[in-house]
Design a protein that fits this description.
Strand content: 15-25%
Radius of gyration: 26 Å
Number of helices: 8
Order of helices and strands: HHHHHHEHEEHE
Number of strands: 4
Strand order of the largest sheet: 2-3-1-4
Helix content: 40-55%
Largest sheet: 4 strands, antiparallel
Distance between the termini: 37 Å
Protein backbone atom coordinates (compact mmCIF):
# COMPACT_ATOMS: atom_id res chain seq x y z
CA UNK A 1 0.00 0.00 0.00
CA UNK A 2 2.93 2.33 0.73
CA UNK A 3 4.73 1.66 -2.57
CA UNK A 4 4.85 4.32 -5.26
CA UNK A 5 2.16 4.14 -7.94
CA UNK A 6 4.64 5.40 -10.52
CA UNK A 7 5.97 1.91 -11.23
CA UNK A 8 2.57 0.65 -12.36
CA UNK A 9 0.94 3.73 -13.90
CA UNK A 10 3.79 5.30 -15.88
CA UNK A 11 3.60 4.48 -19.57
CA UNK A 12 6.51 3.26 -21.64
CA UNK A 13 7.70 6.78 -22.52
CA UNK A 14 7.98 7.73 -18.82
CA UNK A 15 5.24 10.37 -19.08
CA UNK A 16 2.56 11.05 -16.50
CA UNK A 17 -0.61 9.20 -17.41
CA UNK A 18 -4.14 10.44 -16.86
CA UNK A 19 -5.00 7.67 -14.34
CA UNK A 20 -1.86 8.52 -12.35
CA UNK A 21 -2.69 12.22 -12.32
CA UNK A 22 -6.30 11.63 -11.26
CA UNK A 23 -5.29 9.27 -8.44
CA UNK A 24 -2.76 11.75 -7.10
CA UNK A 25 -5.14 14.72 -7.33
CA UNK A 26 -8.01 12.84 -5.70
CA UNK A 27 -5.77 11.59 -2.90
CA UNK A 28 -4.30 15.04 -2.26
CA UNK A 29 -7.70 16.79 -2.23
CA UNK A 30 -9.34 14.21 0.04
CA UNK A 31 -6.46 14.17 2.51
CA UNK A 32 -6.19 17.96 2.45
CA UNK A 33 -9.93 18.24 3.18
CA UNK A 34 -9.52 15.80 6.10
CA UNK A 35 -6.68 17.84 7.58
CA UNK A 36 -8.61 21.11 7.16
CA UNK A 37 -11.70 19.58 8.82
CA UNK A 38 -9.73 18.33 11.83
CA UNK A 39 -7.82 21.60 12.18
CA UNK A 40 -10.96 23.75 12.03
CA UNK A 41 -12.73 21.47 14.50
CA UNK A 42 -10.03 22.09 17.13
CA UNK A 43 -8.80 25.61 16.29
CA UNK A 44 -10.64 28.81 15.34
CA UNK A 45 -9.68 29.84 11.82
CA UNK A 46 -11.08 31.70 8.85
CA UNK A 47 -12.87 29.97 5.99
CA UNK A 48 -10.14 31.08 3.57
CA UNK A 49 -7.45 29.39 5.68
CA UNK A 50 -9.44 26.14 5.82
CA UNK A 51 -9.92 26.18 2.04
CA UNK A 52 -6.20 26.86 1.59
CA UNK A 53 -5.30 23.88 3.76
CA UNK A 54 -7.64 21.66 1.74
CA UNK A 55 -6.18 22.74 -1.62
CA UNK A 56 -2.50 23.08 -0.73
CA UNK A 57 -1.65 19.34 -0.94
CA UNK A 58 -3.01 19.17 -4.50
CA UNK A 59 -0.99 22.23 -5.53
CA UNK A 60 2.23 20.82 -4.03
CA UNK A 61 1.55 17.45 -5.69
CA UNK A 62 1.34 19.02 -9.15
CA UNK A 63 4.53 20.99 -8.52
CA UNK A 64 6.38 17.83 -7.50
CA UNK A 65 5.08 16.01 -10.59
CA UNK A 66 6.28 18.82 -12.83
CA UNK A 67 9.78 19.22 -11.36
CA UNK A 68 10.49 15.54 -10.74
CA UNK A 69 13.92 14.78 -12.19
CA UNK A 70 14.70 18.42 -13.08
CA UNK A 71 17.19 20.15 -10.77
CA UNK A 72 16.79 23.52 -12.45
CA UNK A 73 13.00 23.48 -12.16
CA UNK A 74 13.30 22.42 -8.53
CA UNK A 75 15.55 25.41 -7.71
CA UNK A 76 13.13 27.76 -9.48
CA UNK A 77 10.17 26.44 -7.51
CA UNK A 78 12.10 26.80 -4.25
CA UNK A 79 12.70 30.46 -5.09
CA UNK A 80 9.00 30.93 -5.82
CA UNK A 81 8.02 29.48 -2.45
CA UNK A 82 10.42 31.86 -0.71
CA UNK A 83 8.70 34.82 -2.41
CA UNK A 84 5.26 33.62 -1.29
CA UNK A 85 6.41 33.81 2.33
CA UNK A 86 6.98 37.58 2.04
CA UNK A 87 3.54 38.09 0.48
CA UNK A 88 1.78 36.43 3.43
CA UNK A 89 0.82 37.78 6.84
CA UNK A 90 2.60 36.14 9.79
CA UNK A 91 0.64 33.26 11.28
CA UNK A 92 0.53 31.53 14.62
CA UNK A 93 2.62 28.47 15.38
CA UNK A 94 -0.41 26.20 14.89
CA UNK A 95 -1.21 27.69 11.49
CA UNK A 96 2.39 27.29 10.30
CA UNK A 97 2.41 23.67 11.51
CA UNK A 98 -0.84 23.00 9.62
CA UNK A 99 0.66 24.45 6.43
CA UNK A 100 3.75 22.24 6.79
CA UNK A 101 1.54 19.17 7.28
CA UNK A 102 -0.43 20.06 4.14
CA UNK A 103 2.81 20.45 2.19
CA UNK A 104 4.06 17.08 3.46
CA UNK A 105 0.81 15.46 2.30
CA UNK A 106 1.26 17.04 -1.11
CA UNK A 107 4.89 15.92 -1.33
CA UNK A 108 3.93 12.31 -0.54
CA UNK A 109 1.14 12.34 -3.11
CA UNK A 110 3.37 14.03 -5.71
CA UNK A 111 5.99 11.31 -5.24
CA UNK A 112 3.33 8.73 -6.07
CA UNK A 113 2.73 7.41 -2.53
CA UNK A 114 -0.95 8.14 -1.71
CA UNK A 115 -1.01 5.28 0.78
CA UNK A 116 1.87 6.80 2.72
CA UNK A 117 0.19 10.21 2.52
CA UNK A 118 -3.05 8.75 3.90
CA UNK A 119 -1.23 7.03 6.77
CA UNK A 120 0.66 10.25 7.59
CA UNK A 121 -2.58 12.26 7.53
CA UNK A 122 -4.36 9.85 9.85
CA UNK A 123 -1.45 9.86 12.30
CA UNK A 124 -1.16 13.67 12.39
CA UNK A 125 -4.93 14.25 12.63
CA UNK A 126 -5.14 11.66 15.39
CA UNK A 127 -2.29 13.35 17.25
CA UNK A 128 -3.98 16.75 16.95
CA UNK A 129 -7.29 15.38 18.23
CA UNK A 130 -5.52 13.65 21.13
CA UNK A 131 -3.52 16.73 22.12
CA UNK A 132 -6.65 18.89 22.01
CA UNK A 133 -8.64 16.38 24.07
CA UNK A 134 -6.06 16.04 26.86
CA UNK A 135 -5.20 19.77 26.84
CA UNK A 136 -1.55 19.19 26.01
CA UNK A 137 0.50 22.40 26.47
CA UNK A 138 -2.44 24.31 27.93
CA UNK A 139 -1.86 26.50 30.96
CA UNK A 140 -3.69 24.96 33.98
CA UNK A 141 -7.03 26.79 34.48
CA UNK A 142 -5.82 29.26 31.82
CA UNK A 143 -4.68 31.31 34.81
CA UNK A 144 -2.19 33.63 33.14
CA UNK A 145 -3.82 36.98 32.40
CA UNK A 146 -3.07 40.55 31.39
CA UNK A 147 -4.59 43.15 33.70
CA UNK A 148 -5.01 46.82 32.76
CA UNK A 149 -6.06 49.31 35.45
CA UNK A 150 -6.78 53.01 34.98
CA UNK A 151 -6.01 55.21 38.01
CA UNK A 152 -6.12 58.99 38.65
CA UNK A 153 -2.89 60.85 37.96
CA UNK A 154 -2.78 62.03 41.58
CA UNK A 155 -2.85 58.49 42.98
CA UNK A 156 0.49 57.00 44.04
CA UNK A 157 0.16 53.64 42.28
CA UNK A 158 3.42 52.02 43.41
CA UNK A 159 2.44 48.95 45.46
CA UNK A 160 -1.18 50.03 45.81
CA UNK A 161 -2.52 46.62 44.71
CA UNK A 162 0.15 44.42 46.34
CA UNK A 163 -2.17 43.07 49.05
CA UNK A 164 -4.85 42.23 46.48
CA UNK A 165 -2.33 40.47 44.26
CA UNK A 166 -1.09 38.49 47.26
CA UNK A 167 -4.64 37.32 47.95
CA UNK A 168 -5.80 36.54 44.41
CA UNK A 169 -2.65 35.74 42.42
CA UNK A 170 0.49 33.66 42.65
CA UNK A 171 2.46 36.05 40.43
CA UNK A 172 1.99 39.70 39.49
CA UNK A 173 4.37 41.97 37.62
CA UNK A 174 3.88 45.50 36.33
CA UNK A 175 4.88 45.67 32.66
CA UNK A 176 3.89 49.16 31.54
CA UNK A 177 2.63 52.56 32.70
CA UNK A 178 0.93 54.83 30.16
CA UNK A 179 -0.64 58.26 30.58
CA UNK A 180 -4.07 58.86 29.04
CA UNK A 181 -6.69 61.61 28.80
CA UNK A 182 -4.10 64.37 28.40
CA UNK A 183 -2.12 63.14 31.40
CA UNK A 184 -4.99 63.21 33.89
CA UNK A 185 -5.07 59.40 34.11
CA UNK A 186 -2.50 56.62 34.23
CA UNK A 187 -3.02 53.17 32.75
CA UNK A 188 -1.15 50.39 34.56
CA UNK A 189 -0.52 47.04 32.84
CA UNK A 190 0.25 43.86 34.80
CA UNK A 191 0.95 40.26 33.94
CA UNK A 192 -0.69 38.10 36.58
CA UNK A 193 -1.33 34.43 37.34
CA UNK A 194 -4.59 33.78 39.17
CA UNK A 195 -4.36 31.67 42.32
CA UNK A 196 -7.69 29.93 41.62
CA UNK A 197 -9.99 29.77 38.58
CA UNK A 198 -13.17 31.84 38.64
CA UNK A 199 -11.81 34.63 40.84
CA UNK A 200 -11.66 37.27 38.11
CA UNK A 201 -14.79 39.15 39.28
CA UNK A 202 -13.68 39.21 42.91
CA UNK A 203 -10.31 40.66 41.91
CA UNK A 204 -11.88 43.29 39.67
CA UNK A 205 -14.38 44.32 42.40
CA UNK A 206 -11.54 44.71 44.88
CA UNK A 207 -9.50 46.84 42.46
CA UNK A 208 -12.52 49.07 41.73
CA UNK A 209 -12.51 50.17 45.36
CA UNK A 210 -8.92 51.40 44.94
CA UNK A 211 -9.00 53.10 41.53
CA UNK A 212 -12.17 55.17 41.91
CA UNK A 213 -14.26 52.81 39.74
CA UNK A 214 -12.31 53.74 36.61
CA UNK A 215 -11.76 51.40 33.66
CA UNK A 216 -10.36 47.91 34.31
CA UNK A 217 -9.71 45.19 31.72
CA UNK A 218 -8.63 41.58 32.24
CA UNK A 219 -7.80 39.21 29.40
CA UNK A 220 -5.57 36.40 28.18
CA UNK A 221 -1.86 37.12 28.25
CA UNK A 222 -0.61 38.27 24.83
CA UNK A 223 2.18 35.67 24.82
CA UNK A 224 -0.47 32.93 24.68
CA UNK A 225 -0.78 33.44 20.92
CA UNK A 226 2.66 31.80 20.53
CA UNK A 227 3.62 33.67 17.39
CA UNK A 228 6.79 32.44 15.72
Amino acid sequence: MLDSVFSTLYNSSAEITVPLFLIIMASALLLGALEAFVYRRNNPCTRSFAVTLAMLPAVVSVIILMVSGSIGAGVAVAGTFSLVRFRSAPGSAKEIAAVFIAMAIGLACGMGCPGLAALFTLIMCGAELLYSRVGFGRDPFEARKTLSVTVPESLEYSGIFDDLFAAYTTEAKMTRVKTTNLGSLNRLSYEITLREPGTEKALIDAIRCRNGNLEISLGCRAAETNEL
